Amino acid sequence: MYQFLDSPSLRKEKRLIWAATRSVMETAGFIHKKSGEKSKSHWDLFLRLLKIFALLLKITGYYRKGYGNAKTIMVNELCLNFPNLPPAFDGFRILHLSDLHLDSIPGFASLIIDKIKDLRFDLCLLTGDYRRDISGSFNHILKPIKILSKYIHAPYGTFAVLGNHDTYLMARYEEESGMDLLINESVEIIKDGEKILITGTDDPFNFYTEPALLSLETKGYSFKIALVHTSELARTASVNNYDLYLCGHTHGGQICLKEGVPLISHQFEGKQFNQGKWLLGKMTGYTSRGVGVSGMPIRFNCPAEITMIHLNR
User: Fold this and answer.
1) For residue 279, what pLDDT is reported?
2) How far apart are CA 290 and CA 104, in angstroms?
3) Which of 121, 232, 236, 267 would bridge with 93, disulfide CB 3.0–4.6 Å?
4) If pLDDT is split at 50, 70 and 90, which confidence band does 211 have?
């Protein structure tokens, strides 16, 4: 069972204000950061450089191997212990999916379904980036998302946030997607009379706004989870006594050296946030390597992951 903190009418009002703000930001084409910095996106230049790199990989014969790596998804089991976890949630299982980029590889949704169809979990959380490009059409990913949602059997709900590759227009298809979007808002998960709180924010990488920060200023819960596309709001969540912070965005680098060092991570908060488990104060964080790929459909020394998180007291 779950319950949103805000009433339906207040949620609707906030959603309309958010959509209006996000539409202006997307139309202007500027990146808005928490620091107040405002700049133009260089995504098109980045893609042109990637095409040159892809050509070199094809010439050397590495492209096919990288493509095969990208289609190989591992299920990562992660056990986390929290002494303040309400007893009813001891053993609670969370399926964490991030950076699906469903249109980067033909038939990719089927590969994900093969991995999750036999998994058992209580809650599903998704941390953004559902399409390949950062602009343009997204209608072609609606069908695979809907099909995928039929295999996500989460009795306590499926909640998602948007990433920097996503558009505010996707919120119109929330019901069809089988997911509840958390846009700078919180929801209570209720089990045997006890509660935990989940707060989801809009993407802070390209579309930071003050409501994202304010949504993390929650009080009165013994256990709280923050759901954000990037690690950029981790310090704010830690200060506000969140216990678990889930994010993605980096893909773990996607293309890494054998030592696991990413060539590019698009991570500016610190290398400790590139991938995997990390700690910030008393808060535990986890950066998923992502399920899908961005830019090029290849991976090296950085396998795609679906994360199964076990919460324990």
Assistant:
1) 97
2) 13
3) 121
4) very high
The residue extents of the domains of the chain are 2-27+42-312
The burial class, CB within 10 Å (0-12 / 13-18 / 19+), for 205 is buried
CA Rg, the chain, in Å? 19
- Residue pair 71/263 in contact (Cβ under 8 Å)? The answer is no
Q: State the DSSP code for 235.
A: H
Return the CATH fold of 2-27+42-312. Answer: Purple Acid Phosphatase; chain A, domain 2 (3.60.21)
**Which segments of 48-178 are extended strands (E)?**
73-81, 92-97, 123-127, 158-161
Using the predicted structure, report yes or no on whether residue 72 has a pLDDT greater than 80. Answer: yes
Pairing label, strands 244-247, 30-32: unpaired
Residue 22 pLDDT exceeds 80: yes
Residue 253 to residue 57: CA distance in whole angstroms: 17
Predicted local confidence at residue 42, as pLDDT: 65
In the beta sheet, which residues pair with residue 255?
300
Give residue 271's pLDDT: 83
User: What is the C-alpha to C-alpha distance for residues 69 and 71, in angstroms, rounded to an integer?
Assistant: 5
Distance (Å, rounded) from C-alpha 289 to C-alpha 98?
8
Contact partners, residue 120, CB within 8 Å, separation at least 6: 93
Q: How far is CA 133 from CA 43, 93, 119, 145, 186, in A?
A: 9, 31, 30, 16, 28
- Tens-place pLDDT, residues 242-279: 999 999 999 999 999 887 788 777 777 778 899 999 99
Quote the longest CA-to-CA distance of the chain.
61
What is the reported pTM?
Answer: 0.95
